[in-house]
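[SOLVED] Need 3D model of a two-part complex

Original post:
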Amino acid sequence: MSRKGLFGFVIFIGLFALAVRPAVDPDLGWHLRSGELIAGTHHVPHQDPFSFTYAGAPWTAHEWLSDLTMYGLWRLGGTAALILFFAALIVLAFAFLYARCEARPYAAGLLLFWGALVTVPSWGVRPQIFTLLLASLFLWVLDRSLQTARGRWLAWLPALMALWVNLHAGFAIGVVLILLYAAAALVESKLYQAKQLAIAAAASVAVIPLNPNGFRLFAYPFQTLLAPSMMQYIQEWFSPDFHRGIYRVFLLFIVFTLIVLARSPRRPTVREGLLLLFGLAAALTSARHIPFFVLIAVPILSRRMPESLFSISSSSPDEPQKTPRAALHTAIAVLALCAAGLQAWSVIRHQTAAELAEFPVAATDFLQNHRGLGRTYNDYNWGGYLIARGLPVFVDGRADLYGDAFLHTAVRVNQARPGWDLTLEHYGVRTALIERKSALATVLRESSGWQSVFEDERSAVFTRRDEKAVNAPK
Amino acid sequence: MAVIRTEERAKAAVVTRHPPLWARIALPSVADLIFVAVLLAFTVGQGASGLLWDTSTGWHIRNGETILRTLTIPHVDSFSYTMAGQPWYAWEWLWDTVNAALHVHFALSGVVLFSALVLGLTFTLAYLTIVRRCGNSLIAIVLVLLALAASSIHMLARPHLVSWLLTLLVVRELEVVDGVSRRSFWTVPLIFACWTNLHGGFVMGLALIAIYAIAAILERDRALAKRFAGLFALSAAATALNPYGFKLHAHVVRFLASRTQMDRIDEFLSPNFHSFGARVFLLLVLISAATFMAARSVRWRDLLVAVLAISTALLAARNIPVSAMLLAFAMAPLLSDWLGNSRFQRVSRLGERMYEMERRLNLRFMPAAVVIVLTAGLLWGWRLPNAKWIPQRVPAAAADFLVHRLGAREGVFAPDYWSGYLVYTYAGEGFRVAVDDRSDFYGDARFRQYLDVVKARPDWQQVLDSWNVRYALVGADSSLRSVLSASPDWQEEYADSVAAVLSRRKLTGGTSAPANRPEGRP
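Solution:
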């Protein structure tokens, strides 16, 4: 293996090791249940089957294909299969990114790794990873069509869009990317190119209704982006918190991008400028959009990195290796592979511990053993887990189902704002499974109408005092 | 270089003929209009009270009054009962003193008018600085309006306003540092000597000088780099001219390095780009990024100033106003050049002609007239601006009930954002708070305890016990009110739409709920 090949290999193996993460996404539970429901009934649900607050209300299961895929994988190999599959998707997304870079392998590899690092908070076993992959693929197809000047590459885009629209609501980003390329071509007076891209955009939009929810998905991305409660209460929609170490790395990435583009003798093109501005605006508005900025910025930066700067020795352009060196390279590659395998094994082995740390496992056991406790109020982030355990929930991560007003109410209850008791009364809640240190737990502890029946390090279960006595460890 | 061409163009706009005197008096310049508009926005109608959104103005005034009365700068705390007599850095003492002097004669109206004047001067200076760099009034107007809108995120009658103004003054001075003039060697340190007694934002000024020095090194101008290094040393030394010497610097660094406080105090958090002011700042960031990418050549100085501005704003939302002005300052000449060479040349020429005209209208009559009218109004008791605490922001009736009906002077827990109002209104009656928003004074441990209480965490009761709290003045819609109401140890004495007063059953003794309750819902 050549030195350059080894470098690229190690970068991607490192990326895989980084991408292997425990399956503890708060929404994983309801995705699996939804997939199970679809597999069992051969129908995509259109009403809510999981909550008691919105039971039977219209629900747009827009990620139905992701749900089905995840359920299928889970049936095949449990959470291990899910963890490895999504890690592979992440690596694939970055492989398409790498293919768009110049200055390979050194500068491109280092930039890619830096970029990948700042997108880590959005990784996990979740449908959003399909959007990461498909956005990367879209950009690769778009760049490829421009490089080869062959419009037929663009024909792939509607086909990919038809898949994307059934996997995740991030499909809208695909349309935006094509339109940005078209706008840049228009500004640069490349009218034929602009026309081809406009046709590709129109075709991609035309296939959006090819999903079980039909035309409803046209409005869905806008409804999500314009929902105040999503932006106000759901952490991944918040702007990045640059006090956190990982986002400081992102800040450095932004600064580096600005300096390189301002000082490089190779001036950015209109297309590069438009894409970067769009990516930056999206990333600063919501942390979950940082990956788009990275997908856009890394190839642009790589085009301005002199490869000679990063070459360890300028006199060896990938010449055939002598046997001892080749053996050393092979040994390093095997070592990297073993390390990544070990990391993957360790993550899979500790999945149960990760679930224990993230979810109220023992408290849910308690609820399952005391089925007669009635309707249970639950923390927003634990809804998915409770659905996976077969319990009807008060609220869960399907924020689009519940809407602004209800989410606002749920947050007020969680913060124990005055009126919390009336809300719980209104929904007939008899039990509460909440974080032990939450404001609501403090209030329930003080309240004469409630009693604590279970507590552990993380969670607490309270029931109304008029419930039958519950004998349980405290 | 492109930038230099723009500045030359600006300088080349020679005044050939002055308009007649009547025109110079009657026709305001853009700078005049900006000053007057900002001043009026914060002195007429709701804008005046808008500067009192944050109540810490209250304790600043009372601290200034103490300084005026005793003619000494306090070194220990006198506002709280939990840390009374502990060492305190009153690092904004000069601002406090000026405001207290105004308050003595004009009450809150004088304080608000002073802040409005500082704001008016700041944005006028921002406009003059930017237009001088780019030679295009249209560009300067747009950029200043954007900076003004972005700054709405932190427009309060507090000492940080003076840091906005002084940052601009320092940048103006740094721009004229060259191999010949020695003026900046006394003006800049003088600015820092004042700044260090007004607000802790002088750190940003020092960072700017360092940026200019680094830029000179990168541009291989060693002589200029040496000058900036010398200026940095003199300015840094000048910041020691404060009542606490270099101990103040250590204190500021300790405070800024505290993760506990920086990660939890709203204004030190990263900006939320879903809010209006931050969105406008994002627009400025995008325009500046586009400008730097489109420019044919970019000076290190402008680039590093932009990088500093973006980084500091992303780290703390309170830096957005200064960052917005610095970004506008850094990008203006590049934007002007781009516009001049684009298909919008006619717009560019219009802006340049406006600038030439404006240079001739230099009597500055209108701002002086407005200031005279407002001051006369204050003197004759018009109370313009009619500044008052915002009723929805302060617990006026509840606090009155607490102090005058329950007789509380100590042992009261209240959120830190009300402490300034409580000190302002009741310190004269011997009232002392448990904590207030001088979080640098209270330190990490006490700050965490405070958060335990307001967020109703399990330890809330131990904290209140350790602080000997007998009364709680809490938000009507707060979690803490729910907790205290649910607790058998507490009873609600008073409530209205803003606040509720609760007292401890066990410790209150004879001070139980009075028979005649005032307005509000018991």
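Edit: Strands of chain B lie at 412-413, 471-475, 490-495, 499-504.
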